[in-house]
Amino acid sequence: MSQEARNIYGGQAVIEGVMFAGKNVNVTAVRRKNDEIVFYEVPKTSANWVRSLKKIPLIRGVVGIAESSAKGSQHLNFSIEAYAEDEAGEEGAAKDSKQAASGEPKSGWSLSMLFGVAIAGIISFVVGKVVFTAVPAIVEELLFGKAFENVIVHNFIEGAIKILFLLTYLYVISMTPLIKRLFQYHGAEHKVISAYEAGVELTVSNVQKFTRLHYRCGSSFIILSVIVGVIVYSFFTWDSLWERVYIRLLLLPLVLGLSYEVLRFTNALRDTPVLRYLGYPGLWLQLLTTKEPTDDQVAVSIASFNRMRELDGQSAAVKVV
């Protein structure tokens, strides 16, 4: 397998499409109601200080998460706008395709709006993590706070409550048609990455042979953050409910950073007998966050991936020249 084939790519599902992140560009492909596939292409740019932070263990995970949340929100909003236009019966897919092909945002997307969407993406992620961290701790304290004094047992129960909340939430939203299709595109994204990493030609029939589960998925990160949190919080005690919540929020960046490193570790060991089972909790969660995609959905994922690689190759050629 060539060096190029060993490049590590990631992506995310969006409404009726898939986004893939390359080395130099992020590309989203969305299927419009008229069956046309349109693209949204954004060059990847990071400040020097951001690139420096992304090389530091523990810190790189938090920085990467914030950056992914910000940029992912732009692509998700592109897909939402396209979906809303189709649902409203508006004509505009051809115009969007022409603008996206030039690497420009859709009409109405100023730099200030893009910045606003990026900030909103970061804020929504932070708020979500704060709620997901604080609420289970509060619930466990109210239900079991006076039942026993063992901190580790309290942390395990808190972790179990987090997982129960998470599984219930994912199951409920997966029942809605729109989210079910989003999870199908999530599966299509994983299949394309797995096929690429296996070195096979990216055709619909080839890609469909691969599993919809992948070790490097963000879903794996979520479940790992719960497990890592149980371990980290066990080193700290508290005297009141608010002190317990405060400690968890204070330690949240550390938990996220450690979880990212564990995810990288488990992905590196996925072909190692016995040790590969370290990544299984994340794969089990993906049984909820991914669904088997249709051939049409896989075709959109392939189109996005191929376009991303094409633009990445062009950027690399320009740098060489």
List its salient traits.
321 residues; alpha+beta; four-stranded antiparallel beta sheet; 11 helices; disordered N terminus
Record the SSE blueprint.
Layout: E1 10-14, E2 17-21, E3 25-31, E4 37-43, H1 48-53, H2 59-88, H3 93-101, H4 111-144, H5 151-174, H6 177-198, H7 204-207, H8 218-233, H9 241-268, H10 280-289, H11 295-320
Antiparallel strand pairs: 1-2, 2-3, 3-4
Describe the protein's architecture and organization:
The protein has 321 residues and is an alpha+beta fold. The protein has one domain (4-320). The chain is built from eleven helices and four strands, in the order E-E-E-E-H-H-H-H-H-H-H-H-H-H-H. A four-stranded antiparallel beta sheet has the order 1-2-3-4. Helix 5 packs antiparallel against helix 8 and helix 8 crosses helix 9. The two termini are 26 Å apart.
What would you say about this model in short?
This protein is of the alpha+beta class and 321 residues long. Helices cover 65% and strands 7% of the residues.
Number of helices: 11
Shape, principal axes of CA atoms? globular
- Measured as a percent range, the helix fraction is 55-70%
The biggest beta sheet is recorded as:
4 strands, antiparallel
- The radius of gyration over CA amounts to 21 Å
Elements, N to C (H/E): EEEEHHHHHHHHHHH
List the uncertain runs. 1-5, 104-123
Oligomer: single chain
Integer tally of domains: 1
Number of DSSP-assigned strands: 4
Mean pLDDT over the full residue set: 82
